[in-house]
């Protein structure tokens, strides 16, 4: 009896019945469909093409990696739904983020190699000449989408990793105080005409640790007599508060301490910021735990990186020109441009001027505009904007943001920021209009016990602990105020004389002529509403 001799080659019958693995005898159309099928398998189930038509050992290894990645992705999605804070904390962790970058790069390279191996399995010479370019182009597109996407993700993660490392500090996390996190937010300005950095924009953002309900307390830059608690190092220097007259307005405290009393904060990287935290704590009667300082000189770059911000401006705001020498109070030459009322999309330059312009208006109107710009940035910094402009935003952030927030606590703070989007932001200004009128001396001679009382009432209302009546009494409806304001339009035609028409409309030319005529009283009257603003 004779035995069949096995040569290791597939039989002709096998080759005819298994065209996926043996395409030599298959018709032209089947070879084409086979090529696109193998590419689709490599796209959707990396390793499957090798199992059905190539190196099965390689395919099984790739499938194990594929199924492991799927399991990890599903786990991450579930974890993000049930514990978003933990996911963000892991991504912000230096070691974990570096490991994730390495994994993404390895997966990108491995996926690319699988596509190249799939092309070998397809065997392009067996395809019709007209189909070879189509298969090659499809392969190239799929490699860019898959391996390129993973590689770009690793790049963005590395950018974020470096950004977090440059901005945030290494240090222990801190707990909320009375159920809230309190952050000092400052807009610093170190112009050529100034000695040291002065924070002109000073706010304390208080966030409920559970709900994300947020209140912003604005402190005017000319606030005087800021008190310090007995456990503050500055109690030794100013036991009766920062009360040396007009020279001791609160925004001067930063450079004074940084230059003369830095030794009182020996472990701090920024003694000036620490001093401002102590002053804000004394004014508000709450413990301010961390600071965020934004360099206003770089503010313009950050807004541009976001693609601009959209606001509903309540009144005309001048983009101021140079100061007129010898004027007291300070006066300026006619503005170079104006930001008009109504819905406006501002670029970085315009947003910076909108936030800092003070000509023909009070500091309190300026504070309202700064609050509005901050709220607009928060509202419009959505995931789509972050993903599409991440590199520019990260680059701007490293240049203009300084903070002592611990990196390991980013997860909880991002989670709070997401929760905060579900709440209206409560606001209280420690001065006019919430304490007295713009013309009184509250900022010079503040009633600190009254401030502490109002601060606590506002926090309770924002957290839902007060009655609905109290909440209605304490909350200022900025949107309602803006809607009630008249909307002006600039409708001056070429050659038309600067004038205010019979309908009461205000034009750019009319305002410019008032500035040329130095009619400050009329200008201040017409621009009295330029602090009313809401994010659009």
TrEMBL record:
Q: Which domain of life is it from?
A: Bacteria
Q: Give the matching Gene3D superfamilies.
A: LCP protein (3.40.630.190)
* Keyword annotations from UniProtKB, A to Z: Membrane, Transmembrane, Transmembrane helix
Domain Cell envelope-related transcriptional attenuator, first and last residues per copy? 198-381
The record's listing under InterPro entries reads: LytR/CpsA/Psr_CW_biosynth (IPR050922), LytR_CpsA_psr (IPR004474)
Query: Which spans are transmembrane here?
Result: 35-53, 65-83, 95-122, 134-157
NCBIfam families cross-referenced by the UniProt entry = lytR_cpsA_psr
Q: Which family does it belong to?
A: Belongs to the LytR/CpsA/Psr (LCP) family.
Give the protein's recorded name: Cell envelope-related transcriptional attenuator domain-containing protein
